[in-house]
């Protein structure tokens, strides 16, 4: 079972290993590969959009294809790139940070990944089956009902499958944090990344059901004559908007909170200081999550909800700026008086602070309901949410990947290339999106296939496209770095950054059981406490004993594959119903098998563990 | 309403924000160069929020730059372990309370303005203290064009909406298919046009005459980006003239030339079932009553005969992808199309055209002639009319001022 043995194994056995793994660290790698794949795909779509908009009245791609590309760019980036990459970090780090041997439900964890994977593939099959969804990632009815190709069906069913996976992942992490913390790891000693992931998981639990319901209604409207959103039949199109944004707004906090967590780990580590105002950071996180559920209608200021609703949602939205501001100042004051090392994760964190501040500023401007009558659905909004999602979430993800890369793979990404990646990506990003604020104010609505000449929009669009190429080149450098680093395979120690939290107390990559003995946590920043007050090693909370581990299983893959197949049957109907039969039979059969078969896992025995060193970061 | 802003005039004067912003974009399209009451109010709000937010940004960046320069690791300090500060209640309270205050400063005008924009029921009052008649226009959004019916005036038009300057007109909006959004950046913010049966209402007001570009701001299909329209703001007197001219059109006027007459016949056989001429409830396709006066063809193309020929010939298939005219059953040869074009180019019932918005002529009117049902007191009405007539004359003479 050791990693060296696997390295020597053939491709087939490695593949089988990953197809059947329930180890959170390997699932993290699966999420990382899946997320990066879709990130590249979404990035290529973004490049098509920017090339189309490089000049006025451009005919580079057709109007129909443009709408498909813009829809798939948004959908892919949110659901298939940002979410899984965040799950990659959560899987890789969260159990280690709380001193757990795995997540609470390893089987569900694996199922969550495979559902996401098959959902994502399902959605992208649409490209080859008559056209991708073409109605925007928001899929507003009734446009989504009128869309003629099967694209929107692929959207509804694909996201439904992927959404199940996300929901399961969220529940899993909630239970993990509640139940699996090591002795001494009280809630108020949890690292901020664990806290924000925990809160994000709670958000997933409450937000995703709204999406599930919305997608079900949409599926029934399109495939079974449901008429929930069809105004001709007495349906109401606004209900979709509410359902979508009741999910959609918390979703942006699901994306950003773990990124906040990443930076709350990186900044203390590289400032050599504990996080300033830890408890107010936790409180701010919870407050953001709470308020995040009462602001969804700020996406709908122009719908005509009336001034009372608009005012309430405007003020509630502005309120979110307060806890977010607390976070920004706490980060700044963590650095204040510190000993700042400008490593690449830290430089990304430093790039994040002003970028996200600008995103937050435009967020408050957008919250002003009346002013939003001008901003809404223009490039101002496009600029705003790219500042928070790219400037916040994506920078957070990349900083997290670089920071935890040694923990995940035992190797260190080349620092020089990391810096190159960051600066190209960062400058490209600001070139791309800063000027889009002005494009919006100058009268350019979003989702425009073409802008016309002589409207004063040419220059900023050109600059924006040039910037996009900078981001693309930066990303390529990152990927080259990944490949080169893994080819070289130079191993590093368990604690290469001189960090503070528990995951750095064990080897890199950690053994499959993580902690040989359950660790005893003696304070916030558990490893730092031991570095300052002890011998730099985490004290065990139990004597060495047998470790209970879950068995590997192929069942999650089969369950997900069944739903994937069933999706086609439900969509194409007629003779294809047979596929639905086969698919659902596969899924439910696999679930039945899982329920009936008693799988009690296995034990790693004390004697084997004794041979393998002391389990510290050595 | 303006009280809030005057208090901030001092702050704003200190900033060059407004100056920088006003250099942005084209005056017929940019929200930063408002030409109407709505856009002007919204720009005030935009500037207020920008100034507050820039203040926050400056504070953050000042601390940020200081911290990076001051506390960056120096040579020989690699092992230095700083004091592990837990936090500071005083500081944390400070950066909680100050943002709350800043947000309240923004929240109050936001709520005020939000209510001000939603108010479509209080009629405007003239300088003499009399309530002005409300001009209501029914707006219908369709893939990918706009239809306008002037309530009580028996005027129908499409794509280009005429409004009088210096008073509000009120819009009652609904969609016939998917959700659209009605946006004229330089005079008013946008509002969605929903198909559900709940009409959205808003007002428009232009301070200056001009041809303002309107945009659809909600993704509505392949030609979403080509669903432009125009708001043609003309002086009230010109507007009155336009309405009267439009009211006179029945669609049965015979054009002068023989080709155009032939074109009219072809038109009646092939086009009329969708494209009405004259006031008509028919809105299958755009109303063409004043087609020859249009500023743009189909919202975005130059009004040339070549473009028009291509449109009729190809049914706009390539020009506006996804447009519903491609299903029209007609089949015309080149000669017939040219005859139709000649007929269409005679559809110019009024001397008030988009050019009237730029010619500097300003004719005043209180438009009360357009609403004869309110003749409660005939004497007063006629007196007013006289005054108006005088105004018209004097205004035309002293119009050099407006020509800048």
From TrEMBL, chain A:
A biological-process GO annotation: respiratory electron transport chain
**Annotated InterPro entries:** Cyt_c_oxase-like_su1_dom, Cyt_c_oxase-like_su1_sf, Cyt_C_Oxase_1, Cyt_c_Oxase_su1_BS, Cyt_c_oxidase_su1_bac
Name under which the protein is recorded: Cytochrome c oxidase subunit 1
Q: Give the catalysed reaction(s), semicolon-separated.
A: 4 Fe(II)-[cytochrome c] + O2 + 8 H(+)(in) = 4 Fe(III)-[cytochrome c] + 2 H2O + 4 H(+)(out)
User: What are the annotated GO cellular component locations?
Assistant: plasma membrane
SUPFAM superfamilies xref list: Cytochrome c oxidase subunit I-like
| Pathway the protein takes part in | Energy metabolism; oxidative phosphorylation
**Can the keyword Glycoprotein be found in this entry's annotation?**
no
* Membrane topology annotation: Multi-pass membrane protein
Transmembrane regions listed in the UniProt entry: 28-49, 69-94, 106-129, 154-180, 192-218, 238-263, 275-296, 308-333, 345-371, 383-405, 417-439, 459-483, 554-572, 578-596
GO molecular function terms attached to this record: cytochrome-c oxidase activity; heme binding; metal ion binding
The similarity comment for this entry is: Belongs to the heme-copper respiratory oxidase family.
* Residue span(s) of domain Cytochrome oxidase subunit I profile: 10-522
Q: Which gene encodes it?
A: ctaD
What this protein is reported to do is described as: Cytochrome c oxidase is the component of the respiratory chain that catalyzes the reduction of oxygen to water. Subunits 1-3 form the functional core of the enzyme complex. CO I is the catalytic subunit of the enzyme. Electrons originating in cytochrome c are transferred via the copper A center of subunit 2 and heme A of subunit 1 to the bimetallic center formed by heme A3 and copper B.
Q: Which UniProt keywords apply?
A: Cell membrane, Copper, Electron transport, Heme, Iron, Membrane, Metal-binding, Respiratory chain, Translocase, Transmembrane, Transmembrane helix, Transport
**Which class of enzymes does this protein belong to?**
translocase
Pfam families tied to this protein: COX1
Provide the protein's localization.
Answer: Cell membrane
Q: Which organism is it from?
A: Alkalibacillus haloalkaliphilus
What does UniProt list as this organism's lineage? Bacteria, Bacillati, Bacillota, Bacilli, Bacillales
Automatic annotation (TrEMBL), chain B:
Q: Where is the Cytochrome oxidase subunit II transmembrane region profile domain?
A: 20-121
Q: How is the cofactor bound?
A: Binds a copper A center.
- Transmembrane stretches in the record are 41-69, 90-108
Q: What class of enzyme is it?
A: translocase
Output the superkingdom of the source species.
Bacteria
Q: What is its EC number?
A: 7.1.1.9
Domain Cytochrome c, by residue range, is: 258-348
Region of interest (Disordered), ranges = 351-404
Q: Domain Cytochrome oxidase subunit II copper A binding spans what residues?
A: 132-245
**What InterPro entries does this protein's entry cite?**
CcO_II, CcO_II-like_C, Copper_CuA, Cupredoxin, CuRO_CcO_Caa3_II, Cyt_c-like_dom, Cyt_c-like_dom_sf, Cyt_c_oxidase_su2
**Mind listing the GO biological process terms from this record?**
ATP synthesis coupled electron transport
Q: Which GO terms describe its cellular component?
A: plasma membrane
**What PROSITE patterns does this protein's entry cite?**
COX2, COX2_CUA, COX2_TM, CYTC, PROKAR_LIPOPROTEIN
Stretches of Acidic residues bias are at: 371-404
Q: Does the keyword Transport apply?
A: yes
Provide the membrane topology annotation: Multi-pass membrane protein
Q: Which reaction does it catalyse?
A: 4 Fe(II)-[cytochrome c] + O2 + 8 H(+)(in) = 4 Fe(III)-[cytochrome c] + 2 H2O + 4 H(+)(out)
Using the UniProt record, give the first listed, main subcellular location.
Answer: membrane
A GO MF term: cytochrome-c oxidase activity
Instruction: Name the cofactor(s).
Output: Cu cation
Q: Which NCBIfam families match?
A: CoxB
Its annotated function is as follows:
Subunits I and II form the functional core of the enzyme complex. Electrons originating in cytochrome c are transferred via heme a and Cu(A) to the binuclear center formed by heme a3 and Cu(B).
* Family recorded in the similarity comment: Belongs to the cytochrome c oxidase subunit 2 family.
Q: What is this protein called?
A: Cytochrome c oxidase subunit 2
């Amino acid at each position: 079972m050791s990693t060296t043995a696997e390295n020597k194994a053939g491709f087939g056995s490695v593949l089988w290993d990953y197809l059947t793994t329930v180890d959170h660290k390997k699932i993290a790698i699966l999420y990382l590969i899946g997320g990066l794949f879709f990130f590249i795909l979404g990035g290529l779509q973004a490049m098509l959009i920017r090339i189309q908009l490089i000049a006025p009245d451009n005919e580079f791609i057709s109007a129909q294809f443009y709408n498909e590309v813009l829809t798939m760019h948004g959908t892919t980036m949110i659901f298939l790139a940002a979410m899984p990459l965040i799950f990659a970090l959560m899987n890789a780090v969260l159990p280690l940070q709380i001193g757990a041997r795995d997540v609470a439900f390893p089987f569900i964890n694996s199922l969550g990944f495979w559902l996401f994977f098959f959902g994502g593939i399902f959605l992208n099959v649409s490209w080859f089956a008559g056209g991708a969804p073409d109605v925007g990632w928001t899929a507003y009815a009734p446009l989504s009902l009128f869309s003629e190709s099967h694209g929107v069906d692929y959207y509804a069913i694909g996201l439904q499958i992927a959404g199940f996976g996300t929901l399961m992942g969220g529940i899993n992490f909630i239970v993990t944090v509640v139940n699996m913390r090591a002795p001494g790891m009280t809630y108020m000693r949890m690292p901020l990344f664990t806290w924000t992931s925990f809160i994000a998981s709670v958000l997933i639990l409450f937000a995703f059901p709204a999406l599930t319901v919305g997608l079900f209604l949409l599926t029934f409207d399109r495939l079974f004559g449901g008429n929930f959103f069809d105004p001709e039949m007495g349906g109401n199109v606004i209900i979709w908007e509410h359902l979508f944004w009741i999910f959609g707004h918390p979703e942006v906090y699901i994306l950003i909170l773990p990124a906040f967590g990443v930076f709350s780990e990186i900044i203390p580590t590289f400032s050599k200081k504990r996080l300033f105002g830890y408890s107010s950071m936790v409180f701010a996180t919870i407050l953001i999550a709470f308020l995040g559920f009462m602001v969804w209608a700020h996406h709908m200021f122009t719908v005509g909800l009336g001034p009372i609703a608009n005012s309430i949602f405007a003020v509630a939205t502005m309120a979110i700026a307060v806890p977010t501001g607390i976070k920004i100042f706490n980060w700044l004051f963590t650095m204040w008086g510190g000993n700042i090392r400008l490593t690449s994760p830290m430089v990304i964190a430093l790039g994040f602070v002003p970028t996200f501040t600008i995103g937050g500023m435009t967020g408050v401007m957008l919250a002003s309901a009346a002013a939003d009558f001008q901003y809404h659905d223009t490039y101002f909004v496009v600029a705003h949410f790219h500042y928070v999602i790219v400037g916040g979430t994506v920078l957070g993800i990349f900083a997290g990947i670089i920071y935890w890369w040694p923990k995940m793979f035992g190797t260190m990404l080349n620092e020089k290339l990391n810096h190159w990646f960051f600066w190209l990506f960062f400058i490209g990003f600001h070139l791309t999106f800063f000027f889009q604020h002005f494009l919006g104010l100058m009268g350019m609505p979003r989702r425009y296939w073409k802008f016309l000449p002589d409207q004063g929009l040419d220059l900023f669009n050109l600059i924006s496209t040039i910037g996009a190429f900078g981001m693309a080149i930066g990303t390529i450098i990152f990927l080259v770095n990944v490949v080169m680093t893994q080819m070289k395979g130079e191993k590093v120690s368990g604690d290469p950054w001189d960090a503070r939290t528990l995951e750095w107390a064990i080897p890199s990559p950690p053994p499959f059981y993580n902690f040989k003995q359950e660790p005893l946590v003696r304070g916030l920043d558990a490893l730092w406490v031991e570095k300052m007050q002890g011998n730099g090693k985490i004290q065990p909370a139990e004597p060495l004993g047998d470790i209970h581990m879950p068995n590997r299983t192929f069942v999650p893959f089969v369950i997900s594959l069944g739903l994937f197949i069933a999706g086609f049957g439900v969509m194409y109907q007629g003779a294809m119903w047979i596929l639905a039969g086969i698919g659902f039979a596969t899924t439910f059969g696999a679930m039945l098998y899982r329920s009936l078969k008693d799988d009690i896992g296995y034990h790693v025995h004390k004697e084997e563990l004794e041979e393998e060193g002391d389990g510290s970061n050595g | 309403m303006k009280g809030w802003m005057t208090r901030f005039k001092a702050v704003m004067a200190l900033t060059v924000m407004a100056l920088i912003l006003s250099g942005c974009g084209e005056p017929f399209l940019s929200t930063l160069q408002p030409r109407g009451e709505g856009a002007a109010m919204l720009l005030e709000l935009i500037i207020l929020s920008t100034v507050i937010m820039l203040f926050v940004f400056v504070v953050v960046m000042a601390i940020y730059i200081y911290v990076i320069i001051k506390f960056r690791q120096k040579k020989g300090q690699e092992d230095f372990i700083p004091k592990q500060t837990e936090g500071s209640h005083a500081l944390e309270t400070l950066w909680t309370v100050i943002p709350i205050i800043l947000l309240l400063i923004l929240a109050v005008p936001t709520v005020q303005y939000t209510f001000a924009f939603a108010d479509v029921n209080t009629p405007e009052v003239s300088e003499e203290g009399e309530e002005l008649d409300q001009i209501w226009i029914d707006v219908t959004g369709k893939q990918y064009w706009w239809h306008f019916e002037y309530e009580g005036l028996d005027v129908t038009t499409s794509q280009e909406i005429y409004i009088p300057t210096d008073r509000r007109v009120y819009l009652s909006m609904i969609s016939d298919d998917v959700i659209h959004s009605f946006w004229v950046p330089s005079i008013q913010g946008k509002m969605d046009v929903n198909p559900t049966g709940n009409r959205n209402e808003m007002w428009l007001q232009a301070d200056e005459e001009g041809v303002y570009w309107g945009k659809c701001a909600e993704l509505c299909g392949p030609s979403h980006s080509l669903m432009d329209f125009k708001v043609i703001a003309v002086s009230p007197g010109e507007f009155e003239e336009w309405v009267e001219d439009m009211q006179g059109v029945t669609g049965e006027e015979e054009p002068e030339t023989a080709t155009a007459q032939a074109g009219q016949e072809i038109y009646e056989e092939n086009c009329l079932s969708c494209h009405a001429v004259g006031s008509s409830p028919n809105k299958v396709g755009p109303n063409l009553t004043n087609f020859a006066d249009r500023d743009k063809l189909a919202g975005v193309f130059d009004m040339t005969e070549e473009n028009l020929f291509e449109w009729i010939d190809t049914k706009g298939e390539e020009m506006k992808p996804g447009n519903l005219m491609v299903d029209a059953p007609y089949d015309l040869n080149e000669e017939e199309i040219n005859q139709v074009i000649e007929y269409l180019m005679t559809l110019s019932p009024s001397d008030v055209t988009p050019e009237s918005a730029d010619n500097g002529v300003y004719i005043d009117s209180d438009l009360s002639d357009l609403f004869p049902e309110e003749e409660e007191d005939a004497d007063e009405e006629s007196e007013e009319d006289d005054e108006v007539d005088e105004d018209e004359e004097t205004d035309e003479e002293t119009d050099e001022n407006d020509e800048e």
